[in-house]
Amino acid sequence: MASLRLADDPVEYVAVGTAIVHDDEPEPNRGQVLLLSPQTPDEGSKCFSSAASLEVPGAVYALTPFRGMLLGCVNNRIYLWSWSDAAGHVDNGRALKEVCRHTGGTISLLVSAAMDDYVLVGDLMRSATLFHYSSEPPKLDPVASDEHPAWLTAMETMTETSFLFSDDCSNLVTLARQGEENSGGRHHAGDVLTRVGQFHSGEFVNRLQRGTFGQQPKTDLESANSIDSDSIVWASVSGALGLVLPLKGQQQFERLSLLQDAVLRELSSLGKVVLPYDEWRNHWAGSGATSVTSSSSTHRGFIDGGLLELFLSLPHERQAALVQSLPMELELQAVLQEVEGLAQLH
What we know:
The chain is α+β, with helices and mostly antiparallel strands. It has helices at 250-269, 277-281, 305-308, 316-325, 332-344, and strands at residues 2-5, 12-20, 30-38, 48-56, 60-66, 69-74, 77-85, 94-103, 108-113, 118-123, 128-135, 138-145, 152-157, 162-167, 171-177, 191-200, 205-210, 232-236, 241-244. 15% of the residues lie in helices and 39% in strands. A hairpin with a 4-residue loop joins strand 13 and strand 14 (162-167). The chain starts with a strand and ends with a helix.
């Protein structure tokens, strides 16, 4: 389901995807895309009325607006529909019309309109693939993909070249596109979405969405501890909520990573860490994954905010000792201000 405004139409519609399920079909062979428009109170008791419907050859797994059109995942296909003149279909003479499609993958479960002309698609088995949309002629071409198999449960675009997804093993993974367009403007289908960060959250995340927890405190955008505004909220099937915050740069990441490790050593020496921390936060790959010790499974590219904020609960003398033990010169007051500022963001 998605809310959207279609090209040359001021109405905000709600698009709903359905599936017609039969016991003898491994995957549904029929479904519908319904376009609903809101009604004003004096038009009747119903909240929405049907503006259009379109039968499709399979289950509609995901819908999202894209450049004044509607993108959808139907079984292993990705469709792009426009809101076009079609007299006789609807009262206003418009209907959903196929612009182009791409067939491939196993089951396309998720779709996200990335920056500009790009679309990110999550697959049942083949992880994430980035597509580029060309209007002349209209087509969707794959330009980069994650080489590691994964069952994605949610995903969101962070920047033009970086993306975040969660999988069925309760991992959060960040991807970065490593290839670029050449001077002729062509796109290379062999470009790779490289895993630059991975972290076991312990929650089955089924929603990633740009947003914040309430009103955020004002920060000095020029200070070293300020945070970019592109934070992403995650929600899990257990009802838990979390926040993924982009840090200011590599220097801040390295500083907080050293502090996080120092806090972990301090708490371990006090007997306050029961589970093997690294084993818990390493990337899980299914049954028995905690016994995997290869570098590919090691958690990286993330700061554990919950662990980092335990620094604030330590006695003042231990805080000072930890900061002094770090292999860089830092002022205790500046570290406290930075960690407290991060804690206030949620």
